[in-house]
Every structure is written in C-alpha cells, then in structure tokens.
Amino acid sequence: MSKYLLLLKYHLKTIDTASSTKKGSSATRAALVAVIAILLLPTYAMYFIFVRFLSETLALINQTAALYTLTMAVASMLVFVFGTAYVFTTFFSSKDTELLLALPVKPRAIVASKLTVLAIQYVLFSLIILPAVYWLAPETFLASYWANAAVMLIITPMIPLAAGSVISMCIMRVLGRKVSVDSAQYVVVTLTLAISFLISYATNKLSTTLSDPVSAAIFLLDNKYLMDLLSKAYYPSIFFSRAMLSSGNITGFLNLAIYTLLSFGSFFVAVLLGEGLYLDAATRQTSSKKKAKKEGKEYRFAKISKPLAIALCDLRVLVRTPTFAMNTLAMIVILPLLLAYYHFLLVDQAGNMFAFLFAAYPQTLAYACLLVVSLLDMSMITATSFSREGAGHWVTQSSPSSPSDQLAGRIMVAVLINTATSAILSAMIASILSMSFDNAALMCIASIIATIPIMLFALLVDLKRPRLDWDNPARAVKQNSNVLICLMVSAVYITVSGFAMYYSMEAGAHPGVVLIVYSAVNLAGSELLRRMFLSKYLDWIMDK
Amino acid sequence: MLIIEDLNKSYSPKGAKAVDSLSLEVKRGEIYGFLGPNGAGKSTTIKIVAGILKRDSGLVLIDNIDSERFPIEAKKAIAYVPDTPDLPKKLKGIEYVNFIADMHDISKEARKAKTMQYAELFGIEHALSDKIGSYSHGMAQKIVLIAALVTNPRLLILDEPMVGLDPRSSFSLKELMRGMCDEGKSVFFSTHVLDVAEKFCDRIGIINNAKLVASGTMEELREQEQSPSSTLEQIFLELTENHE
Fold first, then answer.
1. Nearest-CA distance from B238 to chain A in Å?
2. Pairing state between β B155-159 and B211-216
3. B80: which strand partners?
4. Which pLDDT tens digit goes with each residue over B175-229?
C-alpha cells in the first residue's frame, strides 16, 4: 500500500497540464490557467442553461429523473471514449515504463497508481453531471443529497476507465506478440468507437419508441420510466439516479453503496487483470534484431525540396503515432462518419427537412461553411507541430532550413489534411442540403482558406511555447494548453465571422459574395501571420 | 574554422553564468577537444555554436560566417551530434538520414554512396529500414553520426560522441574524424575520456565554472602548468581542483 501511495505521488508530480515550456514563472503559468478557465466559463454557463432547459422539458412529461441517468451516461461515455486511448498510451507508450518496472514494487501497484491518476485527471468530466444535480436538488437543503452527489461525482470516471483498461490490456494480450503497440492502439480505438456507436444507436432506437401514444400514457403513470429506459445504455447510471432521488433514506444509501462498490470493484478487477497483462505486454522485446540484409535489397534515396521533406517527415510521424493520428488524421474519417450516421438517422425519422431548409434559406450556405471551418479547426494540427517533436526538437533547431521552408512544410501538412476533410465534409453537407456542385465547391474552398489564418496562428503559438518535455505522446497533443488557447481563439473568430455574415446577409448580400469576401479577409489575415512567422522564427526557435 | 570571442550565456537574468567570457579558436584541419567537469558549460557552448541556444553576448564565427547574423548559412557549414540521440522514434533510420540530407541539399548520388559507406562502417546497414524507436542507444548514436557525416560538413561538432559506441565504432569514428581533418575540415568535440583527448586531439580546451581555464596543444598545456611530464589527466585535475 505504501508503495502504491509513493507511486501515486510520483505520477501526480509528473502531471503538468498547464505549462508548455519549462520556463516561465509560476505566476505566468497561474495566469495562463486563469485565462483558460475564464474562457471556458461562458461555454460551461451555456451548458448549465441548456441542462435547465432540458430539465424543464422533461418536467412537462413528468420525467425529470431521467436527467440524472442521461448526464451520467454521457459523462461515462466521454470518459470511456477519450480515456481508453489515453489509458493505452499511459500503460504502453510511456517513457517511464522501464523505470517503473525496474523498481522493487509489485506490478499491481504500478497499474493501480497509473489508473488512480487517470481517474483523478478525468474527474473533470463529472462537471457534465453537476448541472443535473444542481437543477434537480430538493428545494430545502438536504445534506445527504449533496454528500451523495459529491461521492458520485468523484468516482464517476472509475468504471469507464476500468472498462477501457481491461479492453486495452486484453487486446494487447491477444495481439501483443503479433503486432506493434501502435497497431494494437488503433484496434483499441476502433473497438471503443464501435462500442460507442452501438450504444448511441441503441439509445436512439429507444428514443424513437417514446413518441408513440402508449409511451406518453406510461410517462404520466411512471415518473421513472424514462430513467429506467435510458439506463439500458449505461446500467450503473441507474444506481446514481436512485441514490440521488432517494437521498436521506435507506434506498438512497443502498444505491450509493452499490454504485461505490461497482466503481471500486471494477477498478480492483482492472488492477488484478492488468497486473499480468501489463507485465506481459510491457516487457516484450522491442529492440531491433540483427537480420541479414535481403539479397539485392536497395534502400530508397531521393532528393526532395526542404518544405516537402519537412512535410513528409511530419506526416510520417503523424501516421505512425496513433495518439497523434487520432487527434489529426482521424477527423478525415470520423467526422464524415458521424455526419452520415446522424443524417441517415434523422432522414429515417423526420425526412430530409434540411433540403427544404436550404431551398427556403440560401443563407445556410454561409453558415454551413462556418460549420465546416469549426469542424476542421478542431484538429488544430499546427498547434502541436513543434510540440510533437518532443526531445527531438534539436533536429529542427540545428537544421539549416529557412523560416519559409519550415512554414511551407508544416502548413502543407495542415492544408493537405484540411483539404481532404473539407472535401468529404462538404460533399456530405451538400448531399444533406441537396446543394448544387458550384455551391458545394465554394463552401469547400472557402472553408479551407478560412482555416489557414488559424493554422498559422496556432503554428506561431507552438513556435513560441512548444510543449517538448513530454514522456507520453498524448501529453504533446491532449494536455497541451496551446491547443486549448488556439481552439478558444478559433471559436471567437468563427463567432465574430458568423455575426458579420449574418448582418451582411440581412443587409441583402448574396451568400456566395459573403463567402468570397470572407475568403479575401482570411487570405489577408494569413499574409499578416505569415510575415510575422517569418520575422520571428529564427528568434523563437532557439532556447527551448 | 571556428572563432568564439567573449561568449557569455546565463539561463536566467540573475542566475550564474553558464558560459563566461569564453574565447577560443578551432583552426582549419584541426581536431579540438573540449574538456570540463559536469556542468562546466561544455554542452551550452556547443549548443550555442550549433545554433540551438541564444548567446547573451559575444561572437561566433563559423568559417567566417557570423552565426547570429547568418544562422542558416552557418548551419549549412556544420553538423551537430548531441550527447543524447533523441530522434523522431517513428521514423526509419534511412528516412532520418534522407531528411537531414534534404535539409543540406545533398544530391541523391552523394547521399546514397555515403550512407551505405558509413552504415557499413558502423555495422548498422541491416537496421536502416527499422524504426529508430527500436534502436539501442548506440544504434541511435550511429544513425545521428551517419546523418551528420552524409552532409559533408566543414565543421563537425560532437557532444560526447563516444558514449554508447562500441570499441570498433569508436575507433572508426576517430579514423573518420582524422580523415576529415586531413581534407581541411575541422572537428570540435567534447569528451570525458581524457585518454582519447590526449592522444587524438591537435589542441585541447579545458572549461571550468563557465570559464576557459586552458587551451592549446599538449605541450602548451604542460608549459602553462609548468610540469613537462604531466599527463592530461593530471593537468585536468589540477586545473579543475576544488571545483567539482
């Protein structure tokens, strides 16, 4: 136990989510965290209001209790999807693996400490549940209600993380000796997404059964009907809902106890299973074996331009590092898939109302373009362009490449990925809205151009303060405050652009003209940022 | 080939100096060994010359090119090998060599011939198509060396290059360094292996507490210390006494 606590302390000390560089005073870092928190507050406030709206809607059909189940299921699903990939890199791609395995401690202490730190990190996802707890709180203060809520919020990430760990380790056990850790990670993520899609599909099917008159009658008779129904998507959520609804009596206490037991039990199972599986996978021989060069085998040598070489190098690292690929390249596949999935579900349920919407409101073209831009910006490829190099950043620092070579190479990757994503997304949206080819092409081109200033801004931010001191690739992209800063800036820019478009079109401007002006503004902004990059590169690339 | 004049560097405005008024010169066709205790300022000096760190003040001329005013031109003239071979682990060895060769505009024919020559010399021709992440420390060190040598640098800068190399590769590297100098190129390297420095370097500089405390040939160092029969180890210990 003491070894577990020591390891836990070690892991907690090595978490550093706020800083991107080693330098900078603690005051600067605290200020940065404060700015990010302030920027996030309006978003969270909007979510709080949205949940209130949802609770009022559910109250109309006598089903407010379902809000507990729904928010818990959503929070757990998000922890499962995002957490599983992170669990995998934490266990199998961390640089501290050798250091920890050499220590005179039981592997279960390592697994338990790593899982505990992950659960602590993912406790923030419990904020998804908090508004439901707040809006459904009893009118008179009930201490046991808030005590139950506090316990539940703290232990929420345990079950999905334990499930993610077991899946990851089982896959490593099955595939571990046949494929690389990277390939196994791709399998884990695909499987996690498939499970999430299945649960989402099942929930959707359930919701379609609610619109019939029989369900409406049941709602009035049983105020927990929807709560029980939704819990089928994530069964442990029923204990949370019951514990909250029956706070202060024995039923509430029993449900709290069951949920707590389930959480710690699943955690314990994950640790026990993980002990053997982790040790087996982590100690696999990975060094390069000396093998005879095949007869006549020729290595490929080709001289290419510097920007192309930089882009190629970046792309290779992106594709071959699952964590990087999932944060950047996955957008090309996952976003259109999601769009197609919901499009067909909606068409199935409500007919293609979007085609009518576009016919009636041609302005939708401009807003659809903004939607594509906001989806493209989510990958923030250039916000981690230098950070992804980690300790190998010296290669770029000592390379005799000019600022324009570096800029061209790195932007080339972003534009390439954005072009592919935009083309597929635009085609999907054009199909949903029954848009003509020229409109679709304009939307696609305008959205690609619109991402360039943000990508350049992100590249500048990452040039100034790259996060290079990571021991796990996930930290370079997921726990990098540069990404958060750039996402915030992108959100503000898109909002401002949206308002400008709205007022222009209200004044009678044609949506096509609006998009052309929008592109011109973006090109001008890009040019300014390009000049700034070129003038700052040689100064900012040093002393990292 | 390399002139450093009155170089100063500190990592924080009020902190101690990492390099203090350091001046030295590496002549054309010369191997210059840079010695000093841990934390003396060797790596900082080397990183400033390689264009990785900024200087606070002073001058660094590489083949008469001011590395601050013309950093890209200066970097074209050098190849840098760090003390720890941290490389993009997802790249294959051959891809890394090609990348560095592209950065230095090396022709296809030249890079092909040199890569195979050096890969065979260091015994890793079988591993060029493996990812760097699967390499041992020594193999990663060799791939950095190969990439550096393929660029045909006028000044080769190495930070403790013998660490991690097997004896045969270490010998090969020394032979290569001597061969480069015979062609009029220069080598500036740091090491803790005093025996290598004594037998192999044309001139030696000793840095202690951020200051260059001695510089010259073995004979000049002995004269400086007024002990004609001293070994480099004795001179080093004498000069760095009570400072480690």
1. 33
2. unpaired
3. B157
4. 999 999 999 999 999 999 998 898 889 999 999 999 999 999 999 988 887 877 8
Placement of tokens 């890009």 in the chain: A526
Q: Is A538 on the interface with B (CB under 8 A)?
A: yes
Helix (H, G, I), strand (E, B) or coil at A385: coil
| Whole-number Å distance between alpha carbons of A161 and A153 | 14
CA–CA separation, A192 vs A179, rounded Å? Answer: 19
Read off φ and ψ for residue B167, nearest 5 degrees.
-55, -40
Cβ within 8 Å, pair B84-A395 = no
ipTM for the whole complex: 0.91
CA A255 – CA A261 distance, rounded (Å): 10
**pLDDT score at A209:** 65
Q: Is any Cβ of chain B less than 8 angstroms from the Cβ of A397?
A: yes
Q: What is the pLDDT of residue A443?
A: 94
Provide the 3-class DSSP secondary structure of residue A291.
coil
CB pairs under 8 A between A and B: 107
Per-run averaged pLDDT (10 residues), chain A, 544 residues: 78 61 62 74 84 88 88 90 81 74 80 88 89 90 90 92 86 71 78 78 69 68 80 88 91 94 92 76 54 60 92 93 81 75 64 71 90 90 93 94 95 93 89 88 95 96 91 82 89 91 92 94 96 94 82
Note the pLDDT of residue A19.
47
CA distance A414 to A411: 5
| Cβ pair A542:B104 closer than 8 A | no
Residue A508 sits at the chain B interface (C-beta within 8 Å): no
Report pLDDT for A350. Answer: 55
Q: List the single residue in A with minimal CA-CA distance to B49.
A: A398
Total residue count of chain B as it appears in this document: 244
Strand B78-81 to B186-190 pairing:
unpaired
In Å, how far is B35's CA from the nearest CA of chain A?
22
Contact A290 B126 (CB under 8 A): yes
Place of tokens 């001179």: B235
Do the chains contact at B116 and A299, CB–CB below 8 Å? Answer: yes
Query: For residue B127, which residues of chain A lie inside 8 Å, CB to CB?
Result: 288, 290
For residue B138, the distance in angstroms to the closest alpha carbon of chain A comes to: 12
Question: What's the gap between Cα A64 and its chain centre?
Answer: 29
Contact B98 A309 (CB under 8 A): yes
Selected for mutation to probe chain A from B46, B52, B114, B139 (highest A CB count within 10 Å) is: B52
Q: What is the four-CA torsion angle of A43, A44, A46, A47, rounded to 10 degrees? A: 120
Read off the pTM.
0.80
In the predicted model, what is the mean pLDDT of residues B23-52?
94
Cα angle for residues A309, A313, A316 (degrees, 5° grid): 135
